[in-house]
Specification:
Blueprint: H1 4-19, H2 23-38, E1 43-47, H3 50-66, E2 76-78, H4 83-92, H5 100-106, E3 112-117, H6 123-134, E4 138-143, H7 148-153, E5 156-159, H8 165-185
Parallel strand pairs: 1-2, 1-3, 3-4, 4-5
Helix pairs in contact: 3-8, 5-6
């Protein structure tokens, strides 16, 4: 079977989406994250499925990669990484509360909440963002499709405007590496 035509079509569409990214929105989020770092604020990040993996990757890249040679380090915490906590909350309360519950224990006014969702409508991410807003947290949405409710709720938003979950997730991961590479080169 020859998959090359389909592969080329996917890549061409993804390149088009990359070329239409809102660099101002990405720049604004990077400045917010840098401000949080310099002020010693925590940055909580989460997502479901592939977005959970992206959230975890963000935390790793910023806590190690970007922070490695800086005196003031990033303090990212990926809420999707604590599987026992998530499962306890999902079992005893609701899966919709797996991110809000740990935020209640740790988040303070002025901290940053980053919610990643391809659809922008993941209920547990929405609940986390709603809680962050209610206590004076600063909120960031990284979304695809129309942006969903997260886009509407967030103080800052990086919207990958594509109706394809795989491409949205691809570009969300590119956001991590784009930011990391840029911040590392600006020492």
């Amino acid at each position: 079977m020859d998959y090359r035509v389909a592969l080329k079509k996917y890549l061409e569409e993804e390149i088009q989406v990359i070329q239409n990214l809102d660099l101002d929105a990405i720049n604004d989020v990077m400045n917010l994250l840098e401000k949080a770092r310099l002020e010693g604020r925590k940055i909580f990040i989460c997502g479901n499925g592939g977005s959970a993996a992206t959230a975890s990757h963000f935390a790793s890249d910023f806590n190690k990669g970007v922070s490695e040679n800086r005196n003031i380090k990033y303090d990212f915490e990926c809420l999707s990484d604590n599987v026992p906590m998530m499962m306890a909350v999902a079992n005893d309360i609701s899966y919709d509360e797996v991110f809000r519950m740990p935020l209640k224990n740790k988040m303070r006014a002025g901290d940053v909440f980053v919610g990643i969702s391809g659809s922008g409508n993941s209920k547990n991410v929405l609940n986390g963002m709603e809680y962050a807003r209610s206590i004076g947290g600063i909120t960031v949405a990284i979304v695809g499709y129309s942006g969903g409710r997260l886009k509407e709720m967030a103080d800052y938003c990086i919207h990958v405007n594509v109706n394809n979950m795989q491409m949205a997730e691809d570009l969300h991961m590119i956001m991590d590496h784009l930011m990391m590479f840029t911040l590392c080169s600006q020492k």
